[in-house]
Model the fold of this input.
Amino acid sequence: MKKLFSNFKQYPSAIFGLFLILFLIGLSIYVVITIPYQEAIQIWRGGDDTRLEVPRTARPIYTNWFRSQNLPTTIVIDSEDPDSGIEKTVTQITDEMWDIQMVLPFDFPYDDFPQEMQLLLTTTYEDKAPFVTLTWYFPDGERIKIADVTAGRRETVRFDLQDRLTRQLDGVRPTVGLLSIPESDPPEAWQGRYELHVDTIVFEEGSDVEAKFISYGQVHGIAGTDHRRRDLSLALLWGAPIALAFGLTAALGTTFTTMFIAAIGVWFGGVVDEIIQRITEVYMVLPFLPILIMVGIFYSRSIWVLLVVVIALSIFGAAIKNYRAIFLQIKESAYIEAARSYGAGNWRIIVRYLVPRIIPILIPGLIGAIPGYVFLEASLALLGLGDPILPTWGKIINDAQMNGALYRGQYYWVLQPAAMLMITGLGFAMIGFALDRIFNPKLREV
Amino acid sequence: MAGDTLLRVKDLQLFFRTTKGIVRAVDGVDFELGRNRAVVIVGESGCGKTSMAKAILRLLPKNVDTYSGKIYLNDLDTMTLKNEEYRLKMRWVKMSMVPQAAMNSLNPVMKVGDQVAEPAIIHNDMSKDVAMEQAKTMFQHVGVPADFLERYAFELSGGMRQRVAIAMSLVSLPELIVLDEPTSALDVLTQANIFNVLKRIKQELGMSFILITHDVATSSELADDVAVMYAGQIVETGDAHRFFAGPLHPYSIKLMNSVPRLRARQEPDFIVGQPPSLLNPPTGCRFAARCPSRYDACDEEPPTVNIEGRTVKCWLHVK
Done:
């Protein structure tokens, strides 16, 4: 083991590959501990209304580092939040009328406009709904009325849908118009401190109002969000343990069972070998991907069902022929005959004499097979046969494709999971090449 | 033959099926071996020596056509045992073998200590530690330093590997060891060493040996008895001293004359022609075609004649 590692150190690419793999493994462990499976699924599968403050298809925050223009992040100002420092001024107008005034101030230091702005009103009353007037104050103190609303218990005021406001802004979309320098064409963002005045008239004693202003940014989180307001970082992180588990199980499951079957066939020979060879030949003509697709369409799209099918289809794969060729050679070695002569049983010979000889040939292949299976899962997900529950890298790409991410310039949506897949492939491939050279003396650099 | 009999082989036959026909590799072999004695089986290449050894240990290839005769070990008819029973009760328990090219018969991915311990673990139900102790003792017997236990086969020299192979055959303390050309491919000094080791083992552990070789000179060191094999049959057996002093069968005489002598001014002799094909052996005496003393009677199968405890299968000695 020590020798292996010192051999390993001679290949810088292998060290880099090992670093990548360790990074992925560390990431997986971290993710599984910090965001347990159930919680992750809940976040990923939960309805859109649990993520109301998250913008749709927002780019990752880091895009701002590479742009001259600062894209807006999401701004949320909530009157219920004690930290916001919003104070309500209540004045009684008549016996049955009270005026509640709130000012929601915010800074807008960005160069571009938000996706959308809206105000959520939560009111408490018995019979008569409060009447709310919304006024927008520009940085220079100019003001414009946004809307008059009779607010139900939960009322959403979407600024872009206010027709009167749009007309007042000369047809410019309010989200743009309210934040741009007047008369600028094309609209230019006006940086400064804005205020939204919420003026509520309530008609009942004890009736109250809370307001939450949300300006949906164009960037959100370290990985951006998708069309259902989900933070992609969750799927990118959780994709790692799933991909590794899938790739590793599939690779281990197929390689070792295949090798054992080949060993058994070669050792017992005769009918056993004959049967194994014929089964292998039948398996070799079975189309792998179409069968997986059919299973996905007609039976189940669960990644674990897929895993079982992959292993089942690969057990009697073409690899048996390769292993058989090597085993046939090993079987004739003098030491095998010696083992037979001193009475080693069949299983002892297979496990202790035949199999150890093939391990050096098997390990590089095994390492190389892992990313193969990770990519297989991603390909199936891309074809729409991904696991419907789990957040996987392939699933993100599939979502991106279904929502035309590339047409809309949402490259982050495709590139991030693709990068994760490439890191996985690269890491394992680099280790695999090095192991191949270590275990296979013919390839060793002179 | 002095002492009680350990092994008695009666009319042993081992025929192989090949695409060209039936090969009669071992064709009616009879011989006996006393306890704590060593029999040397000499003969040319391809005369069936190794096949006979394998027949005795029932290490048969797949293409066996006929496997018959009787093998008695301590008066137990081993031919009646089933294969699995034979594996568990005979191989390495009663009889073990140092195979031909024993140097290559070590598992390249196992430490030689583990390898030597293997038979003891398999047969004597020893725990690994006890078996390793046993292996260590055997290493002492064959003169391999104990720290070699931790080495792999490729780290040992040919002679050391041969010793390890012998240690492996000793480890379960069988009564009979079949050594198939234990010293071929070794230099003369190492050969002498190995034979000294075998001699010592024979004295210390009281085992019997069947030593298969074509090196008549070196094997005379160890031999108590000699059996000469020709074309799948044993043509002469006898006590080693008397055999080396004066072989009876014409083939044995020729064979002994082919050994170069140190002091005698005698050119080594050779035998004209080749041994007959075992695919279709000639009727009558099988050596007849090459025999200088051949006469009319040799067209008939010669009987085995007993002369003062020696046997010879030749018409010349029929009185």
